[in-house]
Automatic annotation (TrEMBL), chain A:
<dbReference type="Pfam" id="PF08352">
    <property type="entry name" value="oligo_HPY"/>
</dbReference>
<dbReference type="GO" id="GO:0016887">
    <property type="term" value="F:ATP hydrolysis activity"/>
</dbReference>
<feature type="domain" description="ABC transporter">
    <location>
        <begin position="2"/>
        <end position="235"/>
    </location>
</feature>
<dbReference type="InterPro" id="IPR003439">
    <property type="entry name" value="ABC_transporter-like_ATP-bd"/>
</dbReference>
<keyword id="KW-0813">Transport</keyword>
Automatic annotation (TrEMBL), chain B:
<dbReference type="InterPro" id="IPR050366">
    <property type="entry name" value="BP-dependent_transpt_permease"/>
</dbReference>
<keyword id="KW-0813">Transport</keyword>
<dbReference type="GO" id="GO:0005886">
    <property type="term" value="C:plasma membrane"/>
</dbReference>
<keyword id="KW-0472">Membrane</keyword>
<dbReference type="GO" id="GO:0055085">
    <property type="term" value="P:transmembrane transport"/>
</dbReference>
From TrEMBL, chain C:
<dbReference type="Pfam" id="PF00005">
    <property type="entry name" value="ABC_tran"/>
</dbReference>
<dbReference type="InterPro" id="IPR003593">
    <property type="entry name" value="AAA+_ATPase"/>
</dbReference>
<keyword id="KW-1003">Cell membrane</keyword>
<dbReference type="InterPro" id="IPR027417">
    <property type="entry name" value="P-loop_NTPase"/>
</dbReference>
<protein>
    <submittedName>
        <fullName>ABC transporter ATP-binding protein</fullName>
    </submittedName>
</protein>
From TrEMBL, chain D:
<feature type="transmembrane region" description="Helical">
    <location>
        <begin position="12"/>
        <end position="30"/>
    </location>
</feature>
<dbReference type="InterPro" id="IPR035906">
    <property type="entry name" value="MetI-like_sf"/>
</dbReference>
<keyword id="KW-1003">Cell membrane</keyword>
<keyword id="KW-1133">Transmembrane helix</keyword>
<dbReference type="GO" id="GO:0005886">
    <property type="term" value="C:plasma membrane"/>
</dbReference>
Length: 323, 298, 335, 314, 510
């Protein structure tokens, strides 16, 4: 599996590792580079520099046939259930594809296995010869998952795998993913912008902003004691269903996400940060370890007067004004 | 008290059918398309079965019975040489349809693989092929074809090959842009992520998904090519006598248009019906595929 | 029939029933939708995808595609007029003027061929007349109001030069430029990031407070509802299954579907636990179950549910519910 | 805009070079030279050799091409093999006729095609739509020269309301200009009318379902403004594209049409030159039409930027 | 027989349903002429040059006759008449021709028309590279004696010259413009009744009458316009709508023109449909094979196809022409496939043979070819048809000599000797197989030297007998008869027996 080394460099010096059976949640705003990161892990986008290591095998320099072979260990489930399946192929054909490609099994054997997988993800074998347009979003996502686990991979990137689904369906798919993870000892890179879902499924969470990971750590710590102002804002923006907490102040970030092609100097978040200091415009903050586990990249932690490896928690109400 | 009605029974029963089965169902549900399809089928049957249906051989001359209007012996009359118009129409259809099929086949043979290649590979090959199609598109197809025939010598095959080459540029464009669309579909990326080799992706993923625009384009090109055949034969550059083609029949009829107008009317109708059927089928395919796609989009 | 009409109601939808023609013939899409929106009130319409939220909102302004649809019953009362029967010319005078709308897709709801300013000013000129220049000045004011910096300059931008959040704000500016009495916002935040979503919700609440307009807010996210709703209307498969004051709905839902929705909210889950789901899936419009439409998926269903059509009935103090067991069930709300 | 135009014009230069090379080569490299056409009805071998010499046909091909091309760039397309007329002036002489014909044809296509297409699109499924669709399908299927012939028989021969042949310059008498061109133009227009109508219908119905049209409708806009402003501009791209394609196709169709109507245009010149193996003329015509088509394509491309600012941005 | 006759109700025909052979065009009614009128003629083929030495085909003469008067003139019946030469005389045992010229006439550019200028013209015409070089190849020298007398000396005989000087070889052009290349497009040195005042090569030529023309009776209009369209229908339409005054007709257009109320007139011409053979391609080298071909073609049905406008014939010229054998009538080669098969056996190809016939790609040619194809099939001869454009046809047959056979419409030339040279003599333009027959060669020389027309006629009769005996190519199919169609206003248009189109004296009724 991923070793805890600087394994991936995607977008801009993004590094993380995932252990066997572990789920890493990756959150952030649209355009922050989550998908790119996920795709870089599978080498679906060219990686300019850095290493990707899966189970000790370095993917970085693999190409062509070797890369294709290596891909059987890692799979991906995409966001849009409507476009991630070939509309002109039957469900069974889509699920068989990896089997035929990698195991060179006969069409019949592939089909038998495909039927098993269809049952495994909670569909009926009678669905095998249908076409994707005959399925609901949730069912399609199940089919995509069946395809992803067909080769018993070690690792699956779920790029917003449930974002397009209704709450109830979303939960069904999440439950399925969890079941499969425990059953097959899978590792997930779970990309989502819905922080509530990520909290539920992830062991650890990484928060991206403008192509960088600004904070990472065990899910509990990040959610309960966010150390980066951006994480803080994100968390406060989660719509809260409880009518009792309605009066709580919410941090509304001012302005728009800057153009990723022309990010601000220094800390990328400084243009929208309520705590921005002079130094934030000058230098990119370093990743610093933090109490309770994980790292954060924020000058408040290193150069700031008050925080130093402490969560941001209590400060917010007083210090952050709504925009 | 609101009394909700019982939901109506679906008008069409849900039936197990593949994607193309679905398509066929939609196509059949589209009246003009169905009419076009039936028409095309009938035209194909009677022309391809010409030896069975035709009352005379198309070259049988009977100068004594020339330029007769429709009679019981010659339902559609005879031409200047006394040949039976109906028989010539049936056999001529073979020639005209085969000629348009030839040019479209050539266009497909060139345009389809190159279009997929350019769309899928991109970069250098794409640039090069695009420029090549730019150049081809810069020539007026008919003028170029006439010029080529004028130097190479007449003959339907030459004409249709050169037309096919010109058409290939059009087809190339359509296939290329369809491939570009398909190429950035997530399911292609999914296949790549699975480790499927490029060749398999091209054949199993891209090709089936560019079939809809291909089929639509082919049916329209067939209509164009048929008209082009007629034009070329009209100018005397097409089918070599005594072979009948709808175009050469129309050309011959033009000489007699005042004396025996029916001579121009029947090939005209045949051409119009065939073109109409191609166009209707093309429209029908587009609508059917279109709806399938829209549905797939949610 | 619906409950008594609140006298202060701004808009009142009464037993609305709409069919659509599809591949499978006419299918019923809205079935007896009734609810009111009061002045200065924010009503939130929630429901799963395909439950008929958008069709409901479109029918208020008569924007349901006529060629494919038919209204089989119902009224939409506004200012003593039935909007569904109003001549199209009069309805056009109301559109964008007294009642305006924001749509689900900020990315596609602005015309790519014209500048943002042009499109915002257009609504103003249509209803208030005047010179283009004045309308543009007003448009700049509105853009500023919805929080777009450097508004006057951005008027000349084309939609593709705006980010999603900015486009949605431009849409809001367009909707508000004639100071409507009712604003209909159809999932205005669904396509946006959480942080932007929060901005928009804040903006709408502020606008309601400032201008006093009523708002019909449509969403499928119960989380958002809690943030701003005065009243909640829950839809399922084309029917209103429950209406309630927001707070009560969360504490004690009356309809099993509402209960299921609340439980399924991800915010409710605990790590490691199986997430609660509602079994089955929403019925297709052409194969609606008889009786209670939620019946086949309902864990509380009894034989009676499948038999007769269940009316939307008042349960207590302004709440109504479409469940034959609403009296005897005690359902759980938000933890 | 000007920069874009400049850039596009620049990219046309290499294209033109390749095209001109192909045109020249295609015509000149064929076995059996053009000299027989020139040497008259009883040529002797000496006479043929002399003619070859005069035409510079004994030079290496590349030299011949270069001589031709460099002269062409300076506006000298050579002389007709058949009658010694300057190719350029022959083309220039026929150009107004063909241009008149094409413009009138496109005008008819625009008026009828847009009209039919819009009428159909605004009431999809109605009898207007069905009628328009039938008309379009029918127009698309009729051979245009056949239609032209029939129109002449009816309007010129039987009814005697229109002239059967010939051309009158616009400057001389706009009415006569119109009367002489209307029959061939209408016959030529039937296919463009059908194509434009279908394209318009498809584009407009497509745009009508766009979210932004609903937005505009929700603003209370009245249909005229809604369609006239919001729909048309967005539906324009495929329609304009269709116009471009049809303009290109028309250039070929005029060859037949000008023949049938004895119109002294470039189409007739093409026919005449091709059949009399007047190679410099054929080369000149192909070159000029190729350049024309390039400009038509350029204009179409540039119009995209106006109709869709997003395209301009990319 | 029935049908075709029915289609020609106006015909006076008997068996083959042929229209009347001579229908005269309306003569000029001197009293009712509109001298300011314009006469518009519509033709199928454009002009190639306005310089009589630079034209490339005799088709172009039509465009030149109004501009350049010729020394002699052949009237519509093919008889020589005075023109710029008011008198002539053959002398020196038939070797010289002395011309006496009209006086007080000037070229259009003001240069006086005199003997000196005539000599200059004739010398230019016979110079190397001139179109007329071959026609005048027998001329040895031209002498000027006095202001208006010219004497031409020939090698073999002067008789042919009388008609040759009525063609482009006798056209007179101002010597002042000889070297002006612009003359090809805008002639200014003409000697005829008209000047060109407008020219659009593929479309039209406009002529305006010159002032004080030397023969005022021959000039009855103020303007002439020649329009060009190769579309038969367009031409007929133009006359029917009155946009043109006259045009020529193809057979299929005859009846519609009459039905449309047009005046249609006609006369047999010297033009014929012929199949020229390349005798170097077997079995055309065998007399029997050529004979078989003649027997295997049903000439009557061709005439029927042409609606009676192509009289069956088996020799180069129709029997009505002086240069012909009156006994060689069409029944010399009755349609007889069985006989053809026998002859094929004799030729050593008992099971028939295959060849390709190249012909003009116009519908009027290909349908004849198709008919012949069906005829030959009966005799076991497989003929493929290859339609090509005219220049290509000439190139394949006469220049590259690759074609087996071509079917063409053979136009009469200025003198029979020219046509004979093309087909029967070595290196003849239409004789790619170099077919030769010693007797024919001998008789040809004799005819050239003959003193009188009668004498020539007798020689030609023998020549064509010999040719027939040897089944010499070409295979003549029929003699064409191309009618003219015109509006009721037109007068004085005549059908010229040699197939030339001349409008001398044309008039428009008031
Ligand atoms: N193929 C590409 N070409 C150019 N830019 C790209 C490409 N793919 C992604 N980007 C850019 O890279 C940045 C990161 O994109 P990415 O899709 O990874 O974001 P994301 O966090 O997944 O966003 P979302 O939540 O919208 O999916 C964006 O600014 C995007 O515009
Ligand atoms: N034009 C149409 N033709 C046919 N059916 C339609 C049409 N528009 C909507 N429907 C159907 O009406 C039902 C309700 O759709 P509606 O758009 O109102 O759902 P929604 O609640 O807004 O869903 P979402 O949350 O996805 O926006 C769906 O079943 C849909 O398929
Ligand atoms: Mg993404
Ligand atoms: Mg909706």
């Amino acid at each position: 599996m991923f070793k805890k080394t600087r394994t991936v460099e995607a977008v801009k010096s993004v590094s993380f590792g995932i252990d066997t059976g572990e789920t890493l949640g990756l959150v952030g705003e649209s355009g922050s580079g989550k998908s790119t990161t996920g795709r870089a892990v599978l080498k679906l986008v060219p990686v300019a520099s850095g290493d990707i290591t899966v189970a000790g095998q370095n993917l970085t320099d693999l190409n062509g046939r070797a890369l294709r072979r290596a891909r059987r260990r890692m799979q991906m489930v995409f966001q849009d259930p409507y476009s991630s399946l070939d509309p002109s192929a039957t469900v069974a054909a889509s699920i068989s594809e990896p089997l035929m490609v990698h195991d060179h099994v006969s069409a019949r054997a592939a089909r038998t296995r495909a039927l098993e997988l269809i049952e495994l993800v909670g569909l009926r074998a009678s669905h095998a010869d249908r076409y994707p347009y005959e399925f609901s979003g949730g069912q399609r996502q199940r089919i995509a998952i069946a395809r992803a686990i067909a080769l018993n991979p070690d690792f699956i990137v779920c790029d917003e795998a449930v974002s397009a689904l209704d709450v109830s369906t979303q939960n069904q798919v999440i439950n399925l993913l969890e079941r499969l993870r425990t059953e097959f000892d899978l590792a997930y890179l779970f990309i989502a912008h819905d922080l509530a879902i990520v909290r539920h499924i992830s062991h650890r969470v990484a928060v991206m902003y403008l192509g960088r990971i600004v904070e990472s750590g065990p899910a509990e710590r990040v959610y309960n004691e966010p150390a980066h102002p951006y994480t803080q804002a994100l968390l406060s923006a989660i719509p809260n269903p409880s009518p009792h907490r309605r009066s709580e102040r919410r941090i509304v970030l001012a302005g728009e996400v800057p153009d990723p092609a022309r990010p601000p100097s220094g800390c990328p978040f400084r243009t929208r940060c309520a705590f921005a200091m002079d130094i934030c415009a000058e230098r990119m903050p370093e990743h610093t370890a933090i109490d309770g586990g994980g790292e954060v990249a924020c000058h408040l932690q290193t150069s700031g007067p008050e925080l130093s490896g402490a969560p941001l928690g209590d400060l917010t109400a007083a210090a952050i004004r709504p925009a | 008290m609101p009394r909700p009605k019982k939901p109506e029974e679906p008008a069409v029963r849900r039936r197990r059918a593949g994607r193309f089965g679905q398509l066929a169902r939609r196509f059949a549900g589209n009246k003009p398309a169905l009419a076009g399809g039936v028409l095309l089928f009938v035209i194909l049957v009677v022309t391809m079965g010409a030896p069975l249906f035709a009352p005379y051989t198309p070259e049988q001359i009977n100068i004594a019975d020339r330029l007769s209007g429709p009679t019981p012996a010659h339902w559609l009359g005879t031409d200047a040489l006394g040949r039976d118009t109906l028989s010539r129409l049936l056999f001529g259809g073979q020639v005209s349809l085969a000629a348009s099929a030839l040019s479209v086949a050539i266009a497909t043979l060139i345009g389809l693989p190159l279009g997929i290649l350019a769309g899928y590979v991109g970069r250098g090959p794409d640039w090069l092929l695009n420029r090549a199609s730019d150049i081809l598109m810069t020539f007026p197809a008919l003028v170029l074809t006439i010029a080529i025939i004028a130097v190479v010598g007449p003959g339907l095959t030459t004409a249709m090959i050169s037309l096919g080459i010109v058409y290939s540029a059009r087809l190339f464009r359509v296939i290329r842009s369809a491939t570009l669309v398909v190429r950035q579909e997530v399911y292609i990326e999914a296949s790549i992520s699975i480790g499927t080799p490029g060749r398999t992706i091209l054949l199993r993923r891209i090709l089936p998904n560019v079939l809809p625009p291909l089929l639509i384009q082919i049916s329209f090109l067939l209509a164009s090519a048929l008209l082009a055949e007629v034009t070329i034969s009209l100018l005397g550059l097409g089918a070599l006598p005594p072979t009948a083609s709808w175009g050469s029949m129309l050309g011959q009829a033009f000489a007699e248009i005042r004396g025996t107008p029916s001579l121009a009317v029947f090939p005209g109708i045949a051409i119009a019906l065939a073109t109409l059927s191609f166009n209707l089928v093309g429209d029908g395919l587009r609508d059917s595929f279109g709806r399938a796609t829209r549905k797939a989009e949610g | 029939m619906t409950g008594t009409e609140p006298s202060g109601s701004l808009l009142s939808i009464e037993d609305l029933r709409i069919d659509f023609v599809t591949d499978r013939g006419w299918v019923n899409v809205l079935n007896g939708v009734s609810f009111d929106i009061g002045k200065n009130e924010i009503v939130v319409l929630v429901g799963e995808s395909g439950s008929g939220k958008t069709v409901t909102s479109l029918s208020v302004l008569g924007l349901v595609p006529r060629a494919h649809s038919r209204k089989t019953s119902g009224h939409i009362w506004y200012d003593g007029k039935d909007l569904t029967e109003l001549p199209i010319g009069e309805l056009r005078d109301i559109r964008g003027n007294e009642i305006s709308m924001i749509f689900q897709e900020p990315m596609t709801s602005l015309n790519p061929a014209f500048t943002v300013g042009d499109q915002i000013a257009e609504a103003y000129r249509r209803h208030r007349g005047g010179k283009k220049k004045a309308a543009l000045a007003r448009a700049a004011e509105m853009l500023d109001l919805v929080g777009i910096p450097n508004a006057a300059a951005r008027l000349r931008d084309y939609p593709h030069e705006f980010s999603g959040g900015m486009r949605q704000r431009a849409m809001i500016a367009m909707a508000l430029i004639c100071e409507p009495r009712l604003l209909i916002a159809d999932e205005p935040t669904t396509a946006l990031d959480v942080t932007v979503q929060a901005q928009i919700v804040e903006l709408l609440i502020r606008l309601r407070d400032e201008t006093g307009c009523g708002i019909l807010f449509i969403t499928h996210d119960l989380g958002v509802v809690a943030e701003l709703a005065d009243k909640v209307v829950v839809m399922y498969a084309g029917e209103v299954v429950e209406t309630s004051v927001a707070r009560d709905l969360y504490i004690q839902p009356k309809h099993p579907y509402t209960e299921g929705l609340l439980a399924a909210m991800p915010q409710q889950g605990v790590r490691g636990e199986e997430l609660p789901t509602i079994p089955g899936r929403t019925p297709e419009p052409w194969s609606m179950p008889s009786g209670c439409r939620f019946g086949p998926r309902c864990s509380h269903a009894v034989e009676e549910c499948g038999k007769a059509v269940i009316p939307l009935s008042v349960v207590d103090n302004g709440r109504s519910c479409r469940c034959c067991r609403s009296g005897d069930l005690a359902l759980g709300g938000v933890r | 805009m000007l920069r874009l135009l400049g850039a596009r014009l620049l990219t046309m230069v290499p294209l033109l070079l390749v095209v001109s090379f192909l045109i020249y080569g295609l015509i000149a490299l064929v076995p059996g030279g053009p000299e027989t056409a020139l040497a008259g009805s009883n040529p002797t071998p000496e006479k043929l050799a002399m003619v070859r010499e005069q035409l510079g046909l004994n030079e290496p091909f590349l030299v011949q091409y270069w001589n031709w091309f460099s002269a062409a760039v300076q506006g000298d397309l050579g002389k007709s093999f058949v009658n010694g007329q300057s190719v350029w002036s022959a083309i220039a002489g026929g150009f107004p006729v063909t241009l008149s014909l094409v413009i009138l044809t496109l005008l008819i296509a625009a008026v009828l095609g847009l009209g039919l297409g819009l009428a159909a699109a605004l009431r999809p499924g109605s009898w207007i739509d069905r009628t328009a669709t039938v008309i379009a399908s029918l127009f698309m299927s009729l051979p245009y020269f056949w239609v032209g012939m029939m129109l002449v028989l009816v309007f010129a021969i039987d009814l005697r309301v229109l002239p059967a042949i010939g051309y009158v310059p616009f400057a001389q008498s706009p009415t006569d200009w119109f009367l002489h061109l209307i029959t061939p133009a209408f016959a030529l227009a039937i296919v463009p009318v059908a194509v434009v109508a279908r394209q318009t219908r498809a584009a407009v119905t497509g745009v009508m379902t766009e979210d932004y049209v609903r937005t505009a409708e929700a603003k209370g806009l009245r249909p005229v403004r809604l369609v006239g402003k919001h729909v048309l501009k967005n539906a324009a791209v495929p329609v304009v594209t269709a116009f471009g394609v049809e303009a290109n196709r028309l250039i070929g169709a005029t060859v037949v049409m000008e023949q049938l109507f004895a119109l002294p245009g470039v189409g007739k010149l093409t026919y005449f030159s091709v059949f009399s193996r007047d190679f410099p003329m054929v080369q000149g015509i192909l070159l000029i039409t190729a350049i024309l088509i390039m400009f038509v394509n350029l204009a179409v491309d540039l119009s995209y930027g106006y109709f869709n600012p997003k395209i301009k941005a990319t | 027989s029935g049908k075709p006759g029915d289609l020609n109700p106006g015909s006076t025909s008997t068996a083959a349903g042929q229209p009347a052979q001579n229908v005269a065009c309306p003569p000029t009614d001197k009293g009712a002429i509109d001298k300011n009128a314009t006469f518009t003629w519509m033709y199928s083929v454009a002009n190639t040059s306005f310089d009589p030495d630079k034209v490339t085909t005799s088709n172009s003469w039509m465009y030149l006759f109004p501009i350049y008067d010729t020394l002699t003139r052949l009237n519509a019946n093919g008889e020589p008449e005075a023109m710029l030469a008011k008198k002539w005389e053959v002398g020196d045992g038939g070797k010289t021709l002395t011309l006496e010229l009209i006086e007080d006439w000037k070229y259009h550019d003001g240069t006086p028309f005199d003997a000196k200028s005539v000599k200059a013209n004739l010398d230019r015409h016979r110079a190397k590279g001139s179109f007329n070089e071959q026609a005048l190849s027998d001329v040895k020298k031209v002498d000027v004696s006095g202001d208006s007398t010219v004497k031409i000396t020939t090698g073999h005989g002067a008789a042919p010259l009388i008609s040759i000087l009525a063609s482009s070889a006798g056209m007179m052009m101002s010597p002042a413009v000889f070297d002006d290349p612009k003359q090809a497009n805008m002639p200014t040195g003409g000697s005829g009744a008209f000047r060109v005042t407008g020219y659009d090569p593929a479309t039209k030529v406009e002529y305006t009458a010159v002032k004080d023309y030397w023969d005022p009776d021959a000039l009855n209009v103020a303007k002439m316009v020649f329009l060009i369209s190769s579309s038969d229908n367009a031409r007929l339409n133009a006359v029917m709508t009155g946009q043109a005054d006259a045009t020529f007709l193809r057979s299929a257009m005859y009846q519609p023109a009459k039905d449309g109320g047009l005046v249609v007139c006609q006369k047999p011409s010297l033009a014929s449909f012929t199949i020229a053979l390349n005798t170097s391609h077997a079995p055309f080298d065998k007399k029997e094979a050529r004979e078989a071909l003649n027997y295997a073609i049903d000439r009557k049905s061709i005439n029927q196809l042409m609606q009676g406008f192509c009289q069956p014939g088996v020799q180069m010229f129709p029997t009505s022409y002086y240069a012909s054998d009156p006994d060689l009538t069409a029944d010399k080669y009755p349609y007889d496939p069985a006989k053809a098969r026998e002859l094929l056996k004799a030729a050593g190809v008992p099971s028939g043979f295959e060849f390709t016939l190249e012909t003009d790609n116009l519908e009027s040619y290909t349908s004849v070819a198709e008919l012949i194809q069906a005829n030959l099939q009966q005799a076991g001869i497989k003929m493929k048809i290859q339609p090509v454009e005219l220049p290509k046809l000439m190139e394949n047959f006469s220049v590259n000599k690759t074609a087996d056979a071509v079917m063409v419409q053979q136009k009469a030339d200025a003198d029979p000797s020219i046509q004979i040279a093309a087909f029967y003599l070595k290196n003849g333009f239409s004789n790619p197989g170099n077919y030769t027959n010693a007797k024919v060669i001998e008789l040809d020389a004799e005819a050239k030297a003959a003193q009188s027309k009668e004498e020539r006629a007798a020689v030609y009769k023998k020549l064509f007998q010999e040719a027939h005996a040897d089944a010499a190519p070409p295979v003549t199919l029929c003699h064409l008869n191309t009618p003219l169609a015109m509006t009721g206003k037109v007068q004085g248009v005549e059908v010229y027996v040699d197939g030339s189109r001349q409008f001398r004296g044309v008039a428009i009724k008031k």
